[in-house]
Amino acid sequence: MYAVRIFNSDYFTIQNLEISNTGKERKAGRTGLKVECTDYGISHNIRINNLTIRDVNGSLVKEEGGGSGILIVNGGDSIRSRFDSLTIENCHILRCERNAMIWSGYYDRKNWYPNKHTIVRNNLIEKVPGDGIVPIGCDSTLIEYNLMCDSPDILPMTEAAAGIWPWSCDNTIIQYNEVWGHKAPWDAQGFDSDYNCQNTLIQYNYSHDNYGGMVLICNSGNAGDYSCGNIGSIVRYNISIGDGIRPKETRQGMFSPSIHIAGPVKQTLVERNIIHANPKPSDAVDRTMITSDSWDGYADSTYFRQNIYYAAEPSHFDFTSSTRNAFEENIYIGQFKNQPESQKNKKAENIYTEKVLQESADGYKGLHCLMDSTKIKEHTLHHIKPEAIKTFFQSIF
């Protein structure tokens, strides 16, 4: 079930190893590295550094138990247990099924005992078909400078997955990451603020060429009292180029809006993001910029402020029955049906045309000037420069 296991340990570093775990056939729950804290109390300062974890053939089906490169488990009946200051950095997770790194811990708000001060930094996730980085039952997690790329299109059509996202977590910060080439049959966004979470911050990230859009913000309306819902998500200063290119039908046809808000999320801020929607690969592909729809309920009090929406082809907005949506000074470049604001900002359109579209219509060359490029293993990580993107928006507004 695992090649390496760290169990009930403190002040422990594992580094500079290559780990694989390939069975004769896919097996549910198989992982490369399992880090476990059960009936122990607090496990302090576990550091996972510079590992290559490859070729783990777990199940491709989430409900069966999936599989992973790294599995973090905390729990216990006699002694509640958790990790404090666990760090995963400089690792390469390659060809692991279903997921790259995922947690299993206390998710029920009636028995809340979250891991604290987790850091996930400078990792390369490559050719992983499912979820990339998914903390569960954590508080104050920092996820930064990670690259997830080139997911193979091998998941069954029942499966949903996305790049980087928390579940049952509070105060998560996701910043300076890049996700491209995600090909899950459902969702497949670069980033996600999921349910049973409070105060998720997604900022300065780069999403491109994914089957889904840039971000999902969601809450299950029938989760029950174990969940606090989805409250206070902030999505700001992110860039999406060429997302939403799902080439085949899924649960709702070719559904792949650039921003998907699903279910009764509350008090969400979407601010100063750039959504650059390029021509889709076929006429059947979804061209929606934002969809806010039902997951046993609808979003309330979502604030969209000073975002730039560029569509190379006619696009539209669909807020269905969501309530108290507010819009302020957003920029719409292209043709949009159900555009939520009617005013034009010719200054902004001219600046975007000059600095982005005249450099390259697909947006890559013009918008890359807002990013830094650094090497992460054998790949290049692109992440947003805060000062550059803030200056860009200041020039417009």
Cα-to-Cα separation, first versus last residue: 55 Å
Number of helices: 3
Which fold does the CATH topology refer to? Pectate Lyase C-like
* Number of beta-strand segments: 44
Description:
The protein has a single domain, classed as 3 Solenoid (Pectate Lyase C-like), CATH 2.160.20. The strands form nine sheets. The protein has an eleven-stranded parallel beta sheet with strand order 2-6-10-14-18-22-27-31-34-37-40, with no helix packed on it. It has an eleven-stranded parallel beta sheet with strand order 3-7-11-15-19-23-28-32-35-38-41, with no helix packed on it. It is 7% helix and 43% strand. The longest helix is centred in the C-terminal third of the chain and has 12 residues. Strand 43 and strand 44 form a beta hairpin. It starts with a strand and ends with a helix. The protein has 397 residues and is mainly beta.
Keywords, please?
397 residues, mainly beta, Pectate Lyase C-like, eleven-stranded parallel sheet, 44 strands
Task: Give the topology.
Elements: E1 4-7, E2 12-15, E3 18-21, E4 30-38, E5 42-44, E6 46-49, E7 52-57, E8 67-75, E9 82-84, E10 87-89, E11 92-97, E12 99-104, E13 115-116, E14 119-121, E15 124-126, E16 133-134, E17 136-139, E18 142-144, E19 147-149, E20 160-161, E21 167-170, E22 173-175, E23 178-180, E24 186-187, E25 191-193, E26 197-198, E27 201-203, E28 206-208, E29 215-218, E30 230-231, E31 234-236, E32 239-241, E33 259-262, E34 266-271, E35 274-277, E36 288-293, E37 300-305, E38 308-311, E39 315-318, E40 326-328, E41 331-333, E42 336-337, H1 346-357, H2 364-367, E43 371-376, E44 379-384, H3 386-396
Parallel strand pairs: 1-4, 2-6, 3-7, 4-8, 5-9, 6-10, 7-11, 8-12, 10-14, 11-15, 12-16, 13-17, 14-18, 15-19, 17-21, 18-22, 19-23, 20-24, 22-27, 23-28, 25-29, 26-30, 27-31, 28-32, 29-33, 31-34, 32-35, 33-36, 34-37, 35-38, 36-39, 37-40, 38-41, 39-42
Antiparallel strand pairs: 43-44
